[in-house]
Amino acid sequence: MSADPRTEFMQAYGPCHEPFTRYCTALAYGRMDVQDLMQEVLLSAFQQFDRIRRKDQLLHYLVRAARNRAVNHWRRNRRQADLCEGHLARLKDRGAPADLLADVGILYGALDKLPAPLREALVLFEVSGLPLAEVAAIQGITPNAAKTRVSRARAGLRELLADRPVPVRNALLNSLASLLL
């Protein structure tokens, strides 16, 4: 007798939840609703779960699916430039001080200017907290290439934030991992 498909999916998804949530929040910030993105991807993943060969790599599937859905959404809604009020409200509800909300806006603005592969590598590593080997597997590159992408993304952020005073720039860069509270 086989396990209930919902139970099997939830067992595979459990370890993925936190990094997937953080990735989607960073990916969607200011451009689309995070919960909608996650629900669409999770529903699709559940429906396709029996076709996923490597269940142990469910996170890779989820990240790719989220990225593809987000890109499709952005293509349809290129004009949406304002920050997502819902996301700001969630940050405020979690007790984020005003200076952190401003930092989040500044950092996401700078992240948006990075090339997509660099931005994704940095978000997966710094925000989602994944090891470089996992980032490499998700992006389909070697661990050394992932390390290079993260390094270049950090350098790109430093350059994009160069007009800020050094202490402010350093504080912004150091708070990257805690963007999502």
Question: Strands, helices and their partners?
Answer:
Layout: H1 5-13, H2 17-28, H3 34-48, H4 58-76, H5 85-93, H6 98-112, H7 116-127, H8 132-139, H9 143-160, H10 166-174
Explain what you see.
This protein is mainly alpha-helical. The chain has one domain (5-178). It is built from ten helices and no strands. The chain has helices spanning 5-13, 17-28, 34-48, 58-76, 85-93, 98-112, 116-127, 132-139, 143-160, 166-174. Helix 2 (17-28) packs parallel to helix 4 (58-76) and helix 4 crosses helix 8 (132-139). The longest helix is centred in the middle third of the chain and has 19 residues, at 58-76. The N and C termini lie far apart (42 Å). The model is unreliable at 79-84 (pLDDT under 50).
What's a concise summary of this model?
The chain is mainly alpha-helical. It has helices at residues 5-13, 17-28, 34-48, 58-76, 85-93, 98-112, 116-127, 132-139, 143-160, 166-174. The model is unreliable at 79-84 (pLDDT under 50).
